[in-house]
Design goal:
Structural class: alpha/beta
CATH topology: UDP-N-acetylmuramoyl-L-alanine:D-glutamate ligase
Number of helices: 10
Strand content: 15-25%
Distance between the termini: 36 Å
Mean pLDDT: 95
Helix content: 25-40%
Order of helices and strands: EEEHEHEEEEHHEHEHEEHEEEHHH
Number of domains: 1
Length: 338
């Protein structure tokens, strides 16, 4: 049986910055903490999985700049034992970077993204001929100019990469990025024919389904379940999962719906939420890889997200599986959303 996870797509450098409150324009606020880490879907998933289980084979693909930030990311791969033969270097631009501002007052985050060579990444950078992993985790549509455009017979480069991965025997999962509703829907519809799984937030699943999943600024579990059912009917998905602050809801082929509340982590234990969605997805995908039932996989996803939120960085709060589950047991889970 094939084993391991191949993460592919966005690799960037995150500068995670904590601020007391988001300022008005033409005013100033104080940055109280700066933390430099790897970021992006390819990086975060790879490091999260290695922090959950160092023995799990993890390799990655993507495009970064041949510069100091690129060398920093290569060193991160080596530090965690992530196979990086598919992580290409380009001298045509800078490594992508993101300034991530975490507001202590609101608990919300704001990203400023400089794409650099991410705009040049294309399906030609993804070769699965020698891949031995079982799962492919791919993202982020909307952050890569060439990949976001049509490629060959496919409506986006993302669909082309997923098509190639399926032909090479990989099971596939997609991560989206919260952007304009019509763009999230376009990318989702492009990729759905080639997906086994999708793990996204409630807004993103609503965009793909054409369902408004929020009422008065809060997630509506009933509408999220409706959106999940609609997305499952659009393609060959085996499972679809949507997470939100209060919990997560999942649908599986055949129509069953599962729901589980998130870990009741107290506000004083939260340092930042940047990377929590990636951590949740890592826990769910690890459970899938290890053949866990869906509910224990959701529980591990929530536990991993809670562990992540203890640090301002995207990945440094994630701990081995047993420690994440112990944290969840300590604080307990919120009520089931459905």
């Amino acid at each position: 049986m094939r084993r391991g996870v191949l993460t592919a797509g966005t690799w960037c450098v995150d500068l995670n910055k904590s601020i007391p409150v988001w300022p008005d324009e033409d005013t100033m606020t104080t940055i109280t903490l700066v933390d430099r880490q790897g970021g992006g879907s390819g990086c975060n998933m790879a490091i999260d999985l290695k922090r959950l289980d160092p023995a799990l084979p993890v390799e990655t693909m993507g495009l970064i700049g041949d510069d100091g930030d690129g060398r920093f990311l290569l060193a991160e791969c080596d530090r965690y034992g992530i196979g990086r033969a598919g992580l290409a270097l380009s001298a045509e631009g800078m490594t992508p970077s993101t300034d991530c501002f975490n507001s202590k007052a609101s608990g919300r985050r704001t990203h400023f993204y400089a794409p650099g060579v991410a705009a040049l990444m294309s399906p030609d950078h993804f070769d699965f001929a020698g891949a031995v992993a079982r799962l492919l985790h791919l993202g982020l549509p909307g952050a890569h100019k060439t990949m976001d455009a049509p490629w060959g017979e496919d409506s986006t480069g993302w669909a082309n990469v997923l098509r190639k991965a399926k032909a090479a025997g990989l099971q596939t999962n997609l991560e989206l990025v919260t952007t304009a509703r019509e763009e999230v829907a376009r990318f989702g519809h492009s990729c759905l024919p080639f997906l086994d799984s999708i793990v996204v937030n409630d807004y993103e699943i609503g965009c793909v389904a054409g369902v408004e999943t929020r009422e008065a600024g809060r997630a509506s579990p009933a509408r999220i379940a409706e959106a999940l059912r609609k997305v499952m009917a659009m393609g060959p998905l085996e499972r679809a999962v949507a997470h939100f602050p209060e919990g997560a809801i999942a649908a599986v082929r055949g129509g069953d719906i599962f729901a589980l509340g998130s870990v009741a982590l107290p506000a004083e234990a939260v340092a930042g939420v940047n990377g929590a969605g990636d951590a949740f997805a890592a826990g769910v995908l690890y459970g899938w890889h290890e053949s866990l039932a869906l509910e224990p996989s959701l529980a591990l996803g929530h536990a991993c997200a809670a562990a992540s939120m203890r640090e301002v960085s995207t990945t440094q709060g994630v701990a081995p599986v047993a420690q994440c589950l112990a944290l969840a047991e300590r604080y307990g889970f919120r009520p089931r959303p459905l």
